[in-house]
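Every protein is a chain of amino acids, and every chain bends into a shape of its own. The protein below has been through that process, and both of its lines are reproduced in full.
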Amino acid sequence: MLTSSYNLPPLPPSVDLETVPVLKALAAANRALAELKGRAASIPNQGILIDTLALQEAKASSEIENIVTTQDELFQADLFPEGPQSGAAKEVALYRDAIKLGFERLHATDGLITNATIIDMFQLLKGRSDGFRCTPGTALKNEATNGIVYVPPQDRREVVDQMTALERFVNDDEISDLDPLIKMAIIHHQFESIHPFPDGNGRVGRILNVLYLTKSGLLDIPILYLSRYITSNKGDYYHHLQAVRDEDAWEEWILYMLNAVTETSKETLFLIEAIRGQMSDYKQRLRNELPKIYSQDLLNNLFRHPYTRIEFMVTDLGITRQTASKYLETLAAHGFVEKHQAGRSNYYINVPLVSLFMDGNK
């Protein structure tokens, strides 16, 4: 039977986590996150950010697992979920849905992140009906050498016990008075080290990051685009994960995660500000050029669905198909959207908004 040389620590770990470098990085991360939270609240319909930015997070997180798709595939998958689409686009869409499920459960459980919610997110993400690992044999390997890097707990009872302890640490603030950002880094490392599921642990663990920030009140909605930083610094991410196990290098791991929060907050803030600017421009243009069809609901539709269609407008605006079709044709004629055809169906692209996401992923 495989055995691990790393003993998962009690929570919180019994080492000095609030070193001078950590406290300095923590202050910067909290400032950046507070600014992001404040600016995000200025978007009139928060669903715009949840739908669009959660999809960007899903795309970046999936790329860490070598699941790669394009913006066009992702938005097309939302348009025509019943139609043909790549396996990668489907997986990314499921990740976005898992984020939204976790966020909905936060409200339904009075702000708790439970193991039941974590299992449900795993099942949605992977299309499975099982939960925590039942059989031994799991080992994490180096993709290049195929050598074993880390062996997580093998016994199901230990996996359940460790996840129960982690659930308590996540939800009971009396266990420790650590800053929530430091706790997030610890929670993520512990989850990845328990490695509780047969598959999908990396993606579920990254959803856990943004859910915990929302639970802690550092964000109102789960919009931190954290996986993009990890994708860009993938080697460092895995190095620091393992260095904690090999060398008890908690300071370096926490610094990595705090820097990820700082940089990602700034990048996400840029996206939100750009979305705000585009919405303001569209609002003014719509009022001036198309006052008879302008409404806040129409504006929200164009930014909640970068690729929109008649059915979306019928639902969002409460209008008939005929009226929705007329609106979209008028919007296309005035350059607000670009008309495309897929089979017998038409769809309409908010080109500046899509370009913003494409530029942000370069």
About this structure: The chain has a mean pLDDT of 92.
